[in-house]
Amino acid sequence: MIHASAPAPVRLTIGGADLHIDAPQGDGPPLVLVHGAWTGAATWALLTGPLAADFSVVAYDRRGHSRSTRGAEAPTRHRHEDDLAAVIASLGAGPVHLAASSYGALLALELAGRRPDLIRGVVAHEPPAIALRSVPEMEALFAGVGEQIAAGDAPAATRRFFEDAVLGPGGWALVPEPVQAAAIANAQTFLDMLADPRWGALDVAAIARHPEPIRITCGDAGPAWLPDIAADVAARLGRELTVIPGTGHTPHHTHPEAFAAVIREVLSSDA
Fold it and tell me: N or C: where does the chain have the smaller number of CB atoms within 10 Å of the terminal CB?
């Protein structure tokens, strides 16, 4: 059940956890923002304003992240997808658009395949679908980062992941300080992600059946494995890939106006 009503932030109780949902911002068709691993709704702070002129924008903290509780068991990706479906239903205004990044992009795409009735369109930035295109060096890095977290060194593990896996050297400094703090506090969620053997999988056939628009985006200034996988996902889905020049894995931090322009162009056509 929901413990408060819009437009104030709400708490949504589902599956043994309480999810924090920010108050909607702006007017227009509903657009839910789905964050990736480590972070929370705050990661979208610079993007919400540019989008609020065209959409009613809602961000939420996924289970176990920031202001949302985890529940008794490590959540699978399927559990996160069910949570997203519940968030959409709680808005009472579906179907909705989704804009999502990284692990959140996997959730958004998979839910589009599972529940097309809930979703009008998706912009998915650099979904790390390593089950479709294995990247052994990254898989080894992820395991090493997980070992650091388990050993109690979340700050070093978090910086290592951001620098070596998704942003490149010096990238940690580009992450806003509140997001850095949230990532360190949320490090346990990375272990939960790795515990799910299907975390990097996609049901390509089901997603490909979803009506337009679905757009895969990527940057051209970050580690190559992420845009390589993004291109592979787009090709397998038969959907367009948009490269956002000068960006990497977090355009919502570094180039929010450019990222918003792509989201607006893709999703406003279906508004």
Answer: N
Distance CA 137, CA 7 (A): 45
Q: How far apart are CA 48 and CA 54, in angstroms?
A: 10
- Closest C-alpha to 45, from 251, 216, 246, 253: 253
DSSP class of residue 162? I
- Would you say residue 4 has pLDDT above 70? no
* Contact assessment for residue 183 and residue 39, using Cβ atoms and an 8 Å cutoff: yes
| Alpha carbon distance 29, 179 (integer Å) | 27
User: 230 falls in which pLDDT band (50, 70, 90)?
Assistant: very high
**What DSSP character marks residue 12?**
E
In what helix (H) or strand (E) does residue 218 lie, and over which residues does it extend? Answer: strand 214-219
Matching CATH number, 10-136+196-270, of 3.40.50.1820, 1.10.3230.20, 3.30.70.100, 3.40.50.10800: 3.40.50.1820
Partners of 100 in beta bridges: 34, 124
Domain ranges of the chain: 10-136+196-270
For 131-171, write each residue's pLDDT tens digit. 999 999 999 999 999 999 999 999 999 999 999 999 999 98
